[in-house]
Write a structure and sequence with these properties.
465 residues; three-stranded antiparallel sheet; single chain; globular; five-stranded mixed sheet; alpha/beta; Aspartate Aminotransferase, domain 2
Length: 465
């Protein structure tokens, strides 16, 4: 069937406050043209992030009522068993969210002079690497920066570049290699099993641990099943297990493919790293059996990690995002192709050629969508990545032939919360975007009038030029 049907029924609803264009103009100005600073009540359709914004199932809410708040409670062991069954990792440390897992990991392995390669670090990952004193290096494949290239796995790491980096800087400066699945800052694009195996081969040869930033592991597995040769007859669970079997550790924000509103994980195999990570967890998060969470959160996470690998859920999820991308392209809006797993990324530089990059064309599109339809989205380009505190260029040797890129694209991400919006909501977004096409020449560049020292996109303020 062509019609996208949500594989669930709606039991509880949350009202949406409708705003007028006049109201939105004032709201936008008062927020310094930064949509992170706009109250949720003033947003009609919220596509700012898919992190922690999803709707939980009746079984997850039932789990919340089962939650045991004792130390070493049964809620933790149910959660641990579910994660171990799914990933094969015996050592599971809960944290309050993914960036807490990242902070613990890079406090252990980072430091001045260290280099952490990735297919593409996302914002908090890069920030935690750099906060430790290390440098974050992105190693995407060439197709990743070609917006209209239809490569099925544009999230892949450039394996040749990884080998060149190791040869250039020396294995002793690289504490681990990380691969983000799916590749969020690269358009939600998946990573193939073939690529993960190749990266693992390089890591094994040089004695380097391979870690996954596995926030959207289930969506990545779905793409592998449907795009990679020889994978169509394998189950999602089998593919997920092989991805994790290739890894020595992982950080996961359960606010994505864990289908919960709060929670994260740090997975490790090394016993010594487990001991050191546990000590840090107790110091900064909580005991090792709750990690900054309540027992009820662990119950909801355990059920979420079960539901996310269901075929009907993933088919609905991926097709819904694809539907949005197809309709935006038909309306004349350039996007990063092919559509990603959790979001559609508008190519703002192509959409607004009259706005120079130093005037943040992505932020101009974000403001335009809010003005027209009360739609909240997020810029992923010069605002988000332009203020990075440590340039990876400083750690590269002059003779390196490797393609090394930070964030060459000016994108606007429309991130789809899980199980929240119906097709009519998405049709409203499409209609609003079509109106933006007609008014694109009215979009104005911006200048930043306040910039915090790290992760500037969250609290920066702008004025229109």
């Amino acid at each position: 069937m062509k019609t996208i049907i949500e594989p669930f029924r709606i039991k509880s609803v949350e009202p949406i406050r409708m705003t007028s264009p006049v109201q939105r103009e004032k709201i936008l100005r008062d927020a310094g043209y930064n949509l992170f600073l706009i109250r949720a009540d003033d947003v009609i359709v919220d596509l700012l992030t898919d992190s922690g914004t999803g709707a939980m199932s009746s079984e997850q809410w039932a789990g919340i009522m089962r939650g045991d708040e004792s130390y070493a409670a049964n809620s933790f062991y149910r959660f641990q068993d579910r994660i171990s069954e799914l990933t094969g990792f015996d050592h599971v440390l809960p944290t309050h969210q993914g960036r807490a897992s990242e902070r613990i990991l890079f406090e252990l392995v980072g430091g001045p002079g260290k280099i952490v390669p990735n297919n593409a670090h996302f914002d908090t990952t890069r920030a935690n690497v750099e906060h430790s004193g290390a440098a974050a290096v992105n190693l995407p494949i060439p197709e990743a920066v070609e917006p209209h290239a239809r490569h099925p796995f544009k999230g892949n790491m450039n394996v040749e570049s990884l080998e060149e980096l190791i040869d250039d800087v020396g294995v002793e400066r690289i504490p681990l290699v990380m691969v983000t699945i799916t590749n969020n800052s690269g358009g939600g694009q998946p990573v193939s099993l073939e690529n993960l195996r190749a990266v693992k081969k390089v890591c094994r040869h040089h004695g380097l641990p391979l870690f996954l930033d596995a926030c959207r592991f289930a969506e990545n597995a779905y793409f592998i099943k449907h795009r990679e040769k020889g994978m169509s007859n394998r189950s999602i669970r089998e593919i997920v297990r092989e991805m994790f079997d290739l890894a020595d550790g992982a950080t996961i924000s359960a606010k994505k493919d864990g289908l919960v509103n709060i929670g994260g994980l740090l997975l490790v195999r090394d016993e010594e790293m487990l001991r050191r990570a546990s000590n840090l967890l107790i110091l900064t998060e909580g005991f090792v059996t709750y990690g900054g969470l309540a027992g009820r959160d662990l119950e909801a996470m355990a059920q979420g990690f079960e539901e996310v690998v269901h075929d009907d859920y993933l088919a609905y999820r991926i097709r819904s995002v694809e539907y949005l991308g197809e309709k935006l392209m038909a309306a004349g809006i350039p996007i990063l192709e092919p559509p990603g797993g959790h979001a559609i990324y508008i190519n703002a530089a192509e959409f607004c050629p009259h706005i120079p990059r130093d005037q943040f064309p992505g932020q101009a599109v974000v403001c335009g969508l809010y003005r027209i339809g009360g739609i909240r989205s997020v810029e992923i380009g010069s605002v988000m990545f332009g203020g990075s505190t440590k340039s990876s260029d400083a750690v590269l040797t002059p003779h390196s032939k490797r393609q090394q890129t930070g964030q060459p694209l000016e994108l606007v991400r429309l991130a789809m919360p899980r199980r929240v919006y119906t097709q009519s909501h998405i049709d409203y977004v499409i209609e609003s975007a079509g109106e933006l096409v007609l008014r694109r020449k009215e979009l104005r560049g911006l200048r930043m009038i306040y910039e915090p020292p790290v992760l500037r996109h969250f609290t920066a303020r702008f004025e229109e030029i």
